Amino acid sequence: MTALSLRDLRVRYNGTEVLKGIDLEVDRGGWLGLVGPNGSGKTTLLRAVVGTVKIRGEVEIGGRNVAAMSSAERSRAIAAVAQRPNLPVDMTVFDYVLLGRTPHISYFGVEGKADLQVVVDVLERLELGALSFRTLGSLSGGESQQVALARSLAQRAPILLLDEPTSALDVGHQQQVLELVDELRREESLTVVSALHDLTLAAQYCDRLVLLGGGEIRAAGDPREVLTVENIRGLYGASVRIIELGGGEVAVVPQRTGA
Amino acid sequence: MNSNLVVGPDLPRAARPRWGQVAAGLSVLLAAGLAGLLIGPAGLDVNDVLRALGDGLPFLDVSHGLTETQLDILWQLRLPRVVLGAIVGATLAISGAAYQGVFRNPLADPYLLGVAAGAGFGATLAFVLAPGAAVGPVALLPIAAFAGSLVGVGLTYGVGRTLGDRSNAALILAGVAVASFLTALQTFIQQRNTDTLREVYSWILGSISTLGWSEVLLALPYAGLAAIVIFLHRRLLDVLAIGEEESRSLGVSTGRVRATVVVAASLGTAAAVAVSGLIGFVGIIVPHAVRLLTGWSYRVIIPLSALFGGAFLVAADLVARSVMSPAELPIGVVTAFLGAPFFAVVMRSARRMR
């Protein structure tokens, strides 16, 4: 079943087209990775799906066009974690994660018991309960990333968008966050779309990749089909080796050109 | 599982003021108000005043020892002055908090954003061009002040944006420029109309000395409406703390929320300015003091700022009319005397907040 589909999606910033007609579909419970060099349109594509930029073309969630949805309705269907989430330093973790309930609360309304319970459950699930009453300013980079993820999970949306969820993390925390996302995806049949810089991680976690370049889709499909030496040289201008790791996994390793 | 949260009936709660905090705010407000009633050239006895106030309540008949003149001083001079001080102080404080939330800028204040200067300009125009005019049953003065306040905040926001710098200081610099410009315009108009000069001048410096119940009635509907609208948006102001884009991804129509709150805060500021002139820094001192004591949430800051802002201005007025008695200092001088150093402190800590 298709969870998310984009048809001829276009975005302009100040007269320049930065997404030039994107067509793609993501199956329910799937994990689509967006890869591509800086400025290729990964973040813009995520923004277009969330609805924070003006678009042309169509975005459908579960078969419904988002143009026909209210902004709260849309936020109940799609949750997003920004690349660098704003974490007000003196807000507590609990209050921050509670903000994730916003699309479920009426304009002048306040949180009910059910909303508080969702936050408690999410914090339990992510094993962040002990941090509940810490302020955001006191968290480490890894904790911050998990707390931002917790806020998006509190939205209880079936689609989760992640913009470079691991860019600020060391290898251990990268793995921890991505494993967590994968577990949640399986448990709650979440559909995940994430932009990822690290091509090896993208190949490991995503069941499909879309390679963007200059606002267009240059390749799409199984990670091994997308991550070829030619594709990567062509778009990133990087020289790499693709190493088969067995079990269908691949690693993308940069290769020095000089010396 | 490594958690200290209890799942069940004892859920953690969303941010809200504690009863103790509300009680403290009310006590301070009542204490300031009582001091405002008792202290002055004509000394009134606390017992008599409390009894006379009780006697003033409907269906209550309490004997007291006040003479007719003392009763007049209490009911026609001091009480309206205290009530008006509380209304103006509460309104300026929550307007300041509201601007701080909307602009995500801890330095925002009705005075520093050019809102008060805009209201002053609008009010002066009304003063000079059509003194005492009314639109139907509604006095023109607060409406002109409101229009001026919107011009002020609009100009400041526009100029701030063109600076291409979204820092806290850029908006405030724009506000200072706009305030100076509007104040210059206002002074120009004032000087060309010397017959009303004195009246306008004393009003501009901020004074609640000559005011009575008619000003209370003039300001109350606007101030009350502004307070209600801002209070209803307190949860959404908390959401805005995570920034424009992330708020929108949570389904909040940020443009609508910002516009509504700015209009409400400007209405409140205009109402305050229309009756009391330009009183600076209340909107920055009070919300920040509350924030320091109680934390980040506007659900706490806004109601408590109303109580402490009211108390603060009643106390400032008491100082203004006591230190050089029988002469009176403009109340704006008192708030600026306290507020300017405070502003410097906030500016230092604001650098950390970004």
Secondary-structure element pattern of chain B, one letter each = HHHHEEHHHHHHHHHH
Proportion of residues in helical segments of chain B: over 70%
Query: How many helix segments of chain A?
Result: 9
Which spans of chain A have pLDDT < 50 for at least 5 consecutive residues? Answer: none
**The CATH topology of chain B is what?**
ABC transporter involved in vitamin B12 uptake, BtuC
Oligomeric state, counting identical vs distinct chains: heterodimer
Helix content of chain A: 25-40%
Please provide the count of β strands of chain A: 12
Whole-number mean pLDDT of chain A: 93
- What is the domain tally of chain B? 1
Largest interface: A-B, 51 and 33 residues
CATH architectural name of chain B: Orthogonal Bundle
Task: Please provide the ordered H/E string of secondary-structure elements of chain A.
Answer: EEEHEEHEHHHEHEHEEHHEE
Describe what this molecule looks like in 3D:
The complex is a heterodimer of chains A (259) and B (354). Chain A has 259 residues and is an alpha/beta fold. Chain A has 9 helices and 12 strands. In chain A, the strands form 3 sheets. In chain A, strands 6-7-8-3-9-10 form a 6-stranded mixed sheet, with helices on both faces. A 4-stranded antiparallel sheet of chain A has the order 2-1-4-5, covered by helices on one side. The relative contact order of chain A is 0.17. Chain B is mainly α and 354 residues long. Chain B has one domain (19-353): ABC transporter involved in vitamin B12 uptake, BtuC (Orthogonal Bundle). In chain B, strands 1-2 form a two-stranded antiparallel sheet. The longest helix of chain B is centred in the N-terminal third of the chain and has 35 residues, at 68-102. The radius of gyration of chain B is 21 Å and the shape is globular. The mean pLDDT of chain B is 86. Chain A binds chain B through residues 47, 50-52, 70-76, 78-80, 82, 85-91, 94-96, 98-100, 102-103, 105, 107-111, 113, 116-117, 119-121, 123-124, 127-130, 132-133, 155, and chain B through 1-5, 7, 11-15, 232-233, 235-236, 238-239, 241-243, 245-246, 248-253, 295-297, 352-353.
